[in-house]
Structures are given as structure tokens and as C-alpha cells.
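User: What would this chain look like folded?
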Amino acid sequence: MKNSNDLEFENAVKTMMLHVGEDPQREGLLKTPQRVRKAYEFIYGGYKENPKEILESAMFTTSNDEMVLIKDIEFYSTCEHHLLPIIGRAHVAYIPNGKVVGLSKIPRVVDVFARRMQIQEQLTEQIADAIMQTIAPKGVAVVIQARHMCMEMRGVEKINSTTTSSALRGLFKKDEKTRSEFFSLINSRSGSRY
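Assistant: Here's the prediction, encoded as C-alpha cells.
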């Protein structure tokens, strides 16, 4: 049985359909409000997850103090201004300071923040800060390259434009050699396809 929040959400979807000129009673749209509610529960599931808990669930002691890089992490997010998709890739690196995390946890942290209403600049900062605050590495670097449907589907309609944002912390910000190594690695031939 649906609770009152579910019904309220589904009625809002019906109102939206009416507003754009559709008939919510049309055969193909009868279950659309329910489908949209379930889709939104998944798309915005990041609000229910804690990035610190994810990182802490697989943290290990290490003597490694060299860069760990996971690049081309695909993600989908939503522009908080138009509720349209942001489609992109994140490149995340950190330099351990006695601790490393399980490799799958970095993409999960990207998804936690991506699955919220966002602006790309904020998304980039949130990922970097969560890693920096939780595992306290010597440095963190995050670069995001993304396409914004609010620019492609409406507004300026620039289909081939890509937005790049970065957040550098610790050694990545202070040390030019470390920063250059990071950018060289993410720009190598097997790098981003955006």
C-alpha cells in the first residue's frame, strides 16, 4: 500500500503531465507517475548514503605513499537548476598517508554525490572533501568532465560542449610535480572519451 508521500509525489507528476499538455489517463501514461517516483528514488539515492561510512568500511593500513588514481568513473547526475541530466566522468587520485581504501569505494563516493541535485563545481568539491576528511591523505585531486543537458536540450543548445572542473587538495595543490603527474596520467591515451 502506498503511503501519503508516494501519492503526493505521483499526483505532482500527473499535474506536471497536465501542464505540458498530456493526458495522465492515456493508456501509455497510467503507470508513469509510479515509474517516475521509483526512478527518482534511485536517481536521488545519494541523499540516503553517507560517504564517510562508505570509505571507512574498507580502510586499510599501508606503507604506500605513491599516487592512487581511478580515472574514467562514469556518473549521471542532475542539474539542480533545470532537473536535467549531467553525464560525465570523474578522475580521482589521492596520495596515501598510512591508509588506503578499497578501490570500489571511490566510485561509490562519486555516485553518492552525483545522485543528488547538483552543480558540477559543487560535485567536484564534495568528492575531494569527503576523501580528504575521511582518510586524511597527503593530497586529493578530482577532475570532472561532463555534458550538461540543460545546455544541450534547451538554452544555448551547444551539443558538443564539455565542462571541466577540478578540486585539488594537499600535495596536488602545493606541489607542481605531483599536480603535473596527475594531469599527465588522466590525459594519457587511455584517458577520457569526453
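The chain has a mean pLDDT of 95. If you want, I can go into more detail on any region.
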